[in-house]
Amino acid sequence: MTRNDRTLHYLRQRIPSFECIPGCHDCCGPVTTSSEEMARLPIKSEATHEAALTALSCPHLGCNGCEVYAERPIICRLFGTTKSLPCPHGRGPDRLTEQKVEERALRFLAQTRQVLV
Ligand code: SF4
Ligand code: SF4
Predict the structure, then answer these.
(1) Entry's InterPro entries (predicted)?
(2) Is the N end or the C end of the chain the one with fewer CB atoms within 10 Å?
């Protein structure tokens, strides 16, 4: 297991999930992720990627929301769980992501090579 894999495991365990408004995907859009996370996502065609980017959307956003929820990138997990990334509709977990976990997530995002999902 690489250092990035260990960090991802740590972050995935500690960023809380929560119930979104059913059908809402207002915070989905073009996002970036590490190559480790990208490798776990299904491969989409170049045309799908281009169409999503043109629409300022994400290639994994389907009619019923995120189609890769269990493997969604760290930035998608973090959204709505910290004071700096609040859900515009006021949704969120009972307890926000701990500050040390948020800081580690932000360091991970800054220090890893990020690719467009
Ligand atoms: S976090 Fe908020 S904006 Fe994003 S999908 Fe959930 S309810 Fe919608
Ligand atoms: S991976 Fe899922 S949660 Fe993240 S932007 Fe795409 S559709 Fe939304």
Answers:
(1) Puta_zinc/iron-chelating_dom
(2) N
Query: Distance between CA 53 and CA 69 in Å, rounded?
Result: 19
Q: Tell how far the Cα of 77 is from the centroid of ligand 2, in angstroms.
A: 9
- pLDDT by position in tens, the chain (length 117): 899 999 999 999 999 999 999 989 999 999 999 999 999 999 999 999 999 999 999 999 999 899 999 999 999 999 999 999 999 999 999 999 999 999 999 999 999 999 999
72 lines ligand 2 (CB under 6 A): yes
Q: Specify which residues 61 forms β-bridges with.
A: 66
Give residue 1's pLDDT.
84
Residue in the structure block whose two tokens are 């760290």: 74
CA dist 52 and 10 (Å) reads 30
For residue 11 and ligand 2, the question of a CB distance below 6 A is answered with no
Task: Tell me which residue has its CA closest to atom 6 in ligand 1.
Answer: 20
User: For residues 10 and 17, what is the distance between their CA atoms, to the nearest angstrom?
Assistant: 14
SS3 88: coil
